Amino acid sequence: MHHPFWGVVIKGGRRIDRAETGLHRARKTMVIATALYRGSHLVAGGAVVTQHQHDRLFPWLALGAAVAATALIWFMAARHRRLVSWAVGLDVLTIGCLLPFGAYAWGGAHAQESIAWVMLLGGSSSAMAAVAFRARLLAVAVVLLVVTHLAGYLLVEADASVTGAHLNALVFSAVVSWVLTWYLCRQGKQVDSANRRALAAEAQRARFAERVAHHNALHDTVLATLTAIARGGVDANTSMMRERCAREAAYLRRLVEQADDREQASEVRAALEESVRAAEALGLRVTARYHEPPAVPGEIALAMARAATEALNNVRCHAGTGHAFLTAGGDSGRLIVTVVDRGRGFGGGAAGPDGAGASEGAEAPGGAARPPGPARPGAGGIGLDRSVHARMRGVGGRAFVDSAPGEGVRVELRWPG
Amino acid sequence: MAGVITVAVVDDDRMLRDGIRSWFEGVEEVDLVACAATVDELLAGPGKPPDVVLLDLMLRDDRPPADNIRRLRAAGSRVLMISVVADRDRIVAAITDGADGFLTKDQELSVLVEAVGEIAAGRTAHSPELAFALAYDRGSMRPRLSPQEREVLVGYASGLTLKATARRAGITVNTAKYYLDRVKAKYQEAGRPTYTKIDLAARVREDGWR
């Protein structure tokens, strides 16, 4: 499953990779293109050495050095997701500039045919330099290559036409690869900025939707209550009215705190708010606090909110307290939501009304210290356990339920698990 | 009457002051001796300074909260900050400035009385909202917390009871409380950090720069 807006790739509901940006993709394309170019030169060199120069040591060493320098460049490119300039510089100097003289001095390559394969490697050096270097350094590299290769071909007294064609290839390898890099990177940046704009528009839409939702909620709650009281004839001091006011004050409080936090409107927050309001409407007091919950795809936010609703329902029905705490935050990119109550809890020897034991995800070792003693899952606890688990696992997340008699219940929801 | 804690309320909302007065009427261990709209008004009043002052976090007079807290402490009172909303930056600033606790105004009476008792005894009134503000403080002057302090702080901030927090961390309740106290102490030792430009201006004034 790939989500275009969050740039998240979920494979088999478990792994996430940060998606590549367009610029990354452009650079990768150039790494591959220059690698193929160098590959063709190495194959040509290998063919010449095995057929005509296999009885001398130096050609083999030269071929080995070229393979090693190329491997270094690829290794660094794989690590940094682009051609690394010092590795390419090393290749230009050793393989591009020095190797031809080595081949002449120790390899017995005194003729144009026998030195040609070594010279060829300079072409791919020059192409890689055009990808990795800035303009001035690139000019220096190309001039160096042209000068040394000219000297090399003069040494072996090559045809002027062969020398000219080779120098032309050297220069135009750089030119073609530079133009390609420039074009691809420009396209990549355009794609990236379009993506950013789409993301911003999406956030804007989310903010607008949230505002409309708040307006509706304010209209149905606070405004209706205040209007009724102002009109008179309503006893504002009944317990029902007080509860209603407390609930609506809690909602306004969260609204104000959200504005104070200057946090971006997030889908998780909006979804969780809905769960909180639903629980409040059923008479539960919920203290909800948010601290920069990381952005997640919409379906994950929804699954989290449903699991949270379930946990809040459990508090309402089984905890023996009218108060729950919901916290949403992040831990190195992972979204963590906890639903906590200070009610009667369950677990251990003294089974609560649910007769359930402290339990957690089947193969999930909890982050914090676990209570000692046997975990004895029972009716209500395991019901909660099973249902939040199923929901979270379905989207690649995880749930932990922890409790002890008299100490309330703590449900932790995580994504990714 | 021995053992009775004297309390004053400083809040510019009269309805809230009246509400708290009628609340405390039924509580034996607490004696509400004064209600005032500003710290000036309270300090100008007659009688000994109260043991604990409930101070609104966002008074609408022009005195900076740091100033209010300092003057109340200098007069010999301890300070419990109260507020309608939990504005995290201001809570953190109030603790560094010498307040001994923070509660939102929607708490039940028992919670409020317990907090007053803790503070009158020279301890800290811990609350999940205070722990949350400290746990997720992003201020530049925040002190370094040890992993255990952080674990206890985050656990307590999530709404767990102190007992449950301690059990999860594998420590005793007393140790958990000690960690929470130490976090507060670290904030108060962190000196006089400046959190806002207004505070900064106040610091400059009190340091006699103008």
TrEMBL record, chain A:
SUPFAM superfamilies: ATPase domain of HSP90 chaperone/DNA topoisomerase II/histidine kinase (SSF55874). Residues 356-370 have a biased composition (Low complexity). Keywords: Kinase, Membrane, Transferase, Transmembrane, Transmembrane helix, Two-component regulatory system. This is Signal transduction histidine kinase. The keyword Transferase applies. It comes from Streptomyces globisporus. It comes from the Bacteria. The chain crosses the membrane at residues 57-76, 83-103, 115-133, 138-155, 167-185. Residues 348-384 are annotated as: Disordered.
